[in-house]
Write a structure and sequence with these properties.
Length: 304
């Protein structure tokens, strides 16, 4: 029995000690997290990390081997209670190629049980002029926009976006994110998976980063990026004194500094250079990014 404190009434998704196995393969291992109302939560992971399996349980497409998963306080398999409040954008569309764009939206809208208009959702994704075009005649990017349109039909309270911008051009990506921002402002909750880590870094309120079926890190972008040091690199003239901070010498009088206090150490270095009239040639200061954390996991590092 779980001994965790009671979950807030604003919690939309509550995952408690989720386990999922396929035969002898343990795909998800004791995973626990929650997503609050109005939050954009990014569920990221290395290939085979278990994030897709986790999403399938949350969506009600797969049953957990053990543990408890609640969406709006209900089991996700309670389709009558959960699905009308949830929109899902899968990685690959399952639309009939013979239906038109408008017919596809209308069909999914009726199945969802939510109220909306075809014109509104097609306008969001700039597919109005394609309303009478058969799905088989759409480009890959247009199909992804149709996927998004059906997911947000009726302004659902919870929207799962699985790789939403794959195959989209820059203008279509910008339009999609503008629509997502408006949904958040209107009170929707978003769960995102993406291989474009800059999207998660720029837009997620919190991130769960999975590897081998479990979380390696969970928290805000700042929480995750603080698990690895930032870097400062520069070169010195041959007659310059040694730099004031512990650094790794590289070729040609170049140096690299790894630091968890980037601003403080950079100021120390600049003050030292000013006091000694030293030019810091090729100075670069790079804060840790989310993709650095992701690479560290792939490389087997366990920074915490």
């Amino acid at each position: 029995m779980s001994t965790r404190p009671a979950i807030s009434t604003s919690t939309v998704i509550d995952v408690d000690t989720l386990n999922l196995s396929y035969g002898d393969f343990h795909a998800v291992k004791d995973l626990s997290f929650h997503v609050e109302q109005g939050e954009l939560y990014a569920l990221l992971g290395t290939n085979g990390s278990g994030k897709t399996s986790t999403l399938e349980v949350i969506e009600g497409h797969r049953k957990a081997s053990s543990g408890d998963v609640r969406v709006f306080g209900k089991s996700p398999t309670d389709r009558g209670a959960v699905r009308p409040r949830m929109g899902i954008m899968l990685q690959e569309s399952g639309f009939s190629p013979d239906l038109t764009v408008a017919e596809s939206v209308r069909l999914v809208g009726r199945l969802s049980g939510r109220e909306d208009t075809v014109d509104r959702v097609l306008g969001i994704v700039d597919l109005t002029r394609k309303a009478d075009t058969r799905v088989s005649q759409l480009s890959g990017g247009e199909k992804r926009r149709l996927d998004f349109a059906t997911a947000v039909y009726g302004r659902p309270e919870l929207i799962v976006l699985d790789e939403p911008t794959t195959g989209l051009d820059i203008a279509s990506r910008d339009a999609l994110w503008d629509a997502v921002q408006q949904l958040l402002q209107d009170g929707s909750t978003i769960v995102l998976t993406t291989h474009y880590l800059e999207e998660a870094q720029q837009r997620a309120d919190r991130i769960g980063l999975m590897h081998d079926g479990a979380f390696v890190h969970q928290g805000t972008v700042s929480d995750l990026t603080r698990t690895l040091p930032a870097s400062i690199q520069f070169s010195l003239p041959r007659d310059a004194p040694a730099p004031p901070l512990q650094s790794a010498p590289l070729a040609d009088r170049s140096y690299a500094i790894e630091t968890f206090t980037l601003q403080e150490d950079l100021k120390t270095l600049l003050d030292w250079a000013h006091d000694h009239t030293v030019e810091l040639q090729g100075l670069q200061a790079a804060p840790t990014r989310l993709d650095d954390v992701f690479r560290a996991i792939g490389a087997g590092q366990t920074a915490s």
